[in-house]
Specification:
Blueprint lengths: L4 H19 L6 H10 L3 H37 L2 H23 L5 E5 L4 E5 L5 E3 L20 H13 L7 H6 L4 H28 L8 H5 L1 H22 L1
Antiparallel strand pairs: 1-2, 2-3
Helix pairs in contact: 1-7, 1-9, 2-3, 3-5, 3-7, 4-9
Length: 246
């Protein structure tokens, strides 16, 4: 597969959308909101914890991406031009899989936040989770009198592990599409992943902490798999077209 400079922009743009949508899933920011309310953290401290956990999330995803790029670079040197056709076909196949998941209704999510910590409901990643919080502590200050406060270190470690051990699998096809650009492409896409992920997590955490009531991400989460499918199929077709012209 020949590296086509014009392919890098759409690949990076796809990466931005995939990373942002993935980070918009409630499991990537709602736990931080609940922890902040329970621990009495300030918004600044909460966003710092979000950045820390988001970095762990990005690092594990990047590690998996590095393994994929390493294997792809090795295979590309052996297969030559055939690799480009295989890469385009693989992207289309991955896109078709996500469209199939969308058709089955798997992987959608739904969240509502009411008031300042009264209730939190979430469903995501094809799974089901419910969290109800009845803290009435202010955003800036200690929890209500008599409440036992967990160690901040333990809570932060738990949040870090929660995000780090659930990599963004949807970004791996983006790394795959960028294999032709080698390790320079890997570094660029990793930066895209980091910025879009941490920015989305921080944005939705901050919006919720500022008291935005009835915050509903159902439309985003519900169509996540479908959007991935369309993006990957489009990217795969673009790779095939450029491969045919090269």
């Amino acid at each position: 597969m020949v590296a086509q400079p014009e392919l890098l922009a759409p690949i990076a743009a796809t990466g931005v959308v995939v990373a942002f949508l993935h980070a918009a899933i409630p499991t990537h920011w709602l736990p931080f909101v609940l922890a902040a309310r329970g621990q009495g953290w300030s918004r600044a401290r909460t966003l710092g914890v979000v950045a820390l956990a988001g970095t762990g999330h990005v690092l594990l995803t990047a590690l998996l991406g590095a393994l994929l790029v390493f294997a792809g670079v090795e295979a590309g040197g052996t297969l030559g031009r055939t690799f480009g056709w295989l890469a385009g076909g693989a992207l289309i196949a991955v896109g078709a899989f996500y469209l199939w998941r969308q058709a089955r209704g798997a992987g959608h999510g739904h969240v509502h936040l009411f008031g300042r910590g009264d209730h939190g409901h979430q469903h995501g990643h094809g799974g089901h989770a419910h969290d109800a919080s009845h803290h009435h502590a202010p955003h800036h200050g200690a929890p209500r009198s008599g409440a036992r406060r967990r160690s901040d270190v333990a809570v932060i470690a738990g949040l870090f592990a929660l995000l780090t051990l659930s990599p963004c699998e949807g970004f791996l096809p983006v790394y795959g599409a960028g294999i032709v650009f080698g390790w320079a492409g890997f570094v660029l896409l990793s930066c895209v992943l980091a910025v879009a992920t941490v920015a989305a997590m921080g944005l939705f955490t901050w919006l919720t902490l500022t008291g935005l009531e009835g915050f509903d991400l159902s439309r985003i989460a519900r169509w996540e798999a479908g959007v991935y499918g369309v993006l990957f199929i489009g990217l795969g077709l673009l790779v095939l077209v450029n491969e045919g012209w090269s």
